[in-house]
Amino acid sequence: MDVTEQAVKDFRHLQSNLDQFFLIIMGMIVLLMQCGFAFLEAGAVRSKNSTNILIKNLMDQFVAGIAYWIFGFPFAFGNGNDFIGYTFWATYELEETKLALFFFQYVFAATAATIVSGAMAERCEFIAYIVYSILITGFIYPVVTHWVWSDNAWLTAGMDYTFNNETVTIGYKDFAGSGVVHVLGGIAALVGASLLGPRKGRFHKGSKTVVPIRGHSVPLAALGGFILLFGFLAFNGGSQLTISNAGDGEAISLSVVNTIISGSMSALVSLIINRLTGTSKWSLLTTLNGALTGMVAICAGCNVYHPWAACVVGFFAAIAYKLINTIVTSLYIDDPLDAVAVHFGGGSWGVIAVAFLHRTDGIVYNWDQASGMALAWQLCGLVTITAWTAVTSVLMFGILKLTGLLRVAPELEAKGLDIPKHGEPAYPTEAYGHGWEEKLAKILEHVELKDAAKNMSSLGDGFAKAFLGAPVKQTDVGPYENPEVNYMDTHSTTNLNDLESGKGTTNGTTGVPHVTSIDVKSTTKM
Amino acid sequence: MMNLTENNLQDLKDNVDQIFVVLMGIIVMLMQAGFAFLEAGSVRSKNTTNILIKNLLDSFVAGITYWIVGYTVAYGKGNSFIGWTYWASHDLPLSSFGIYFFQYTFAATAATIVSGALAERCEFMAYIVYSIVITGFIYPVVSRWAWDPAGWLFVGGVYTGDNGEEFNVNYQDYAGSGAVHALGGVAALVGAALLGPRKGRFSKQNKMAVTLRGHSVPVAAFGGFILLFGFLAFNGGSQLDLTGEGSAVAVSLSVVNTMISGSVSAMISLLMNRVFGDSKWSLLKTLNGALTGMVATCSGCNVYRPWSCAILGLLGAGAFKLTAFTLEKLYIDDPLDVVGVHLGGGIIGVIALAFLKPEEGIIFQQNRKSALFLGWQILGLTTIIVWTAGLCFIMFGILKLFDKLRVSPELEEKGLDIPKHGENAYPSEAYGHGWEKELEEILQEIESIKGDDLKGNLTKRIGQHINKSKYVSAPSNEFPEVNPH
């Protein structure tokens, strides 16, 4: 073998290795999105249901890990007919170099399933959740994938058309799955939420009241959101599936840039829409959902838009989010995470947007029959995916509901699911507050209850004094605005030895040490 | 027109290999955060800062110790037992720095396993000492035996077959079921046994074990998610290169196998607790089960057939449950079930390889060679356990003799955050702006209760009032479960 031949052979191996690794690393980051969803949902539910929603998001990857492995992937990418595939059961006889692709598709399947848990939060039975996760990752989603991304993909293959004596093939385009993943997840969430019914106390149809049931932790939800925003870049960038061909790097980079632009635009527009028409506040959660909607909407064509078109996509994504949200709420369907608005709203706009804004074939660039037909195919894909998902979801959730397995008992819903279902309250009271009972006891010693109840400000003072310990004599009494400076219950290390040896001034009844001096340095660190 | 030469390609391959190993190492670094939060969520709020700083410092203690002496001992030139060159990476070629970094992250992982078992009662100085000894000596020596070309476990033995042909059999442990996890698990076991249980955890007279619940399931779950993500890099990255023939396949196979084993182990753990445990769908046990399954695949995820990993998941779940049960029976307090995950999973991982490795395992060929393979796996596992247990016994024993191992009972009672770190995890003065109104209503209601002993059951009362919904029977669920044995 001469040098050139060897070099070519080596080069091909390198290409293959790099392509596989690209899928693996992008897939791993998309797997982290499971964590993102988990915390977005955990922060958005009440503390009594936090463990419940966390384990449901944790289980997605494991249910998919088995169901998608054994039969989901075969249905999706096995050799078969136009409807479904039927080889590679449990990756049997799957070429080794295709394992990375299997992994990447698996994380997408897990994503489709996890969308649904948001809409069903706080009232869905655990067994029902396991059942629908198996069916979504094992059947509903893989079949759609087969139609769009497999070798038998009839939606993507489309048909040949002759316009002006030129023959073009026009089919459904969906790069990272606005339709395949997000419309599917959104519709399943919609069906599930409506069959499940709203949470108790959420709506009052008589007076047409909608009660905003707040989640227990904005920081947790925001953490989840940050992770999702990060993971989405891999979700869209990784959909290129290879890195070693000419133009791959550019396509991936374009996808990532477009995702950021669309997400940003959608976030800002959602922020403003909410300020003007919603709760009139600068809402963190709405902005976050808006950003996600923008990224969902760009999925279908992030590799083929000019960046300014990504702006347009993001703009209308925010509007779609608000629109779908309003419609869902007006139908008295309870969607705790706005999953339907984000995923169906963003996804359906995303599918349609490709026909308009595709940089070479879009209607905005060519007003002709071919682009019109392309729009028709996008709509065809959208309708097909919606119909398939709606019908299978109605069957699935309907059967669960008829057998009484869908929703938890009302007593459980009232008390919270964490303890009866999981035996693990998210924030067990006995694990907290060592030292806080002492403080609360001090409140009762120091605060005049009758007066305090009538006069808020004296309560505040009494509370501060009693709750936080006696005011501290400071050497530096600077113009601090924060009253807490006077009441820090930690102290400089010079008192450490006293505390450990049992000396030092301590409150006899509670054991909480009085601080007699504050180190100026530690104060200024605040 | 550029001539593509072998040199150009080799340069590119070298670069790719190095960035691969660095990137995987960076993700394994994130596992430090994962451990940190898993442990933080599983301890009480009074000890949260303490466990966080202990996990934070693992990276830094290892960063110095492994740099100066650990890598030397592990991968320096030397004999089959220990190495003695590259002190503080002196003379280490730059092209090996990526691998050095990756190995460092593994050392930090081995050390951080131990902190889970010693949580809530271990002295800070003792923690620093054991971290230095584990990352500087105990772990590097074992990693040399198992992974350095000169290491005696890696070299194995040469045997003569029936037909006069010579063949080699050695101890195999791709990503460290034995070298990292069993080692960490044993160190944790010895440490926890010598440290003693937390106050209130066991009552030997009544033969009871009290579940001391952690303060935040969400925080623990967050740590778990990060660990599940990082584990893929832990196993995938152990290929150590990307451009060799079949390397990417090995990486892909590692990742897929890790996911399958973790998924099966998680599902089985979930079901086992539902059927045989406390009849709940337990998040924490499921999480630990998933981790055990992933630990069990470490030894051979680069070569297993995916179906073997389903079996490993099943065995891992069983090993976890068995180990946790045994430890409780022995009155050894392991707050994070670290020993179950790492020692239980690690033992399964090492032994199972001899059965399930394609073509060489006992399932595939039953002959002298595969029997010897099992022999070498057992030999390696036993040596690792004995080496670690012996050295840890001496190390923790000396610390205990000088009374440096455990914190004083008063500190344990009040919590370690304020006296040790001056940083309350959740300082009360930083909370409650806006809560005064709720508190006002609570106080109004409390005032209306006359003649009751307010201080007793104060927490329960506050809870009831805050929650307004009448949870009648729930309060009793909020107190620790007492499981009579």
TrEMBL record, chain A:
The keyword Acetylation does not apply. One of its GO terms (cellular component) is plasma membrane. The chain crosses the membrane at residues 20-40, 61-79, 99-119, 126-149, 175-197, 218-239, 251-273, 285-306, 312-333, 340-356, 376-400. Its main location: membrane. It is a multi-pass membrane protein. Residues 22-427 form the Ammonium transporter AmtB-like domain. Keywords: Ammonia transport, Membrane, Transmembrane, Transmembrane helix, Transport. The keyword Transmembrane helix applies. It comes from the Eukaryota. Pfam families: Ammonium_transp (PF00909). It is found in: Cell membrane; Membrane. Gene3D superfamilies: Ammonium transporter AmtB like domains. GO terms for biological process: ammonium homeostasis. GO terms for molecular function: ammonium channel activity. Belongs to the ammonia transporter channel (TC 1.A.11.2) family. This is Ammonium transporter. It comes from Patella caerulea.
Automatic annotation (TrEMBL), chain B:
Signal peptide: none annotated. One of its GO terms (biological process) is ammonium homeostasis. SUPFAM superfamilies: Ammonium transporter. Residues 20-426 form the Ammonium transporter AmtB-like domain. It is a multi-pass membrane protein. It comes from the Eukaryota. The chain crosses the membrane at residues 20-38, 59-77, 97-119, 126-147, 174-196, 217-236, 248-271, 310-327, 339-356, 376-399. One of its GO terms (cellular component) is plasma membrane. Keywords: Ammonia transport, Membrane, Transmembrane, Transmembrane helix, Transport. It is found in: Cell membrane; Membrane. GO terms for molecular function: ammonium channel activity. InterPro entries: Ammonium/urea_transptr, Ammonium_transpt, Ammonium_transpt_CS, NH4_transpt_AmtB-like_dom. Belongs to the ammonia transporter channel (TC 1.A.11.2) family. This is Ammonium transporter. The lineage of its organism: Eukaryota, Metazoa, Spiralia, Lophotrochozoa, Mollusca.
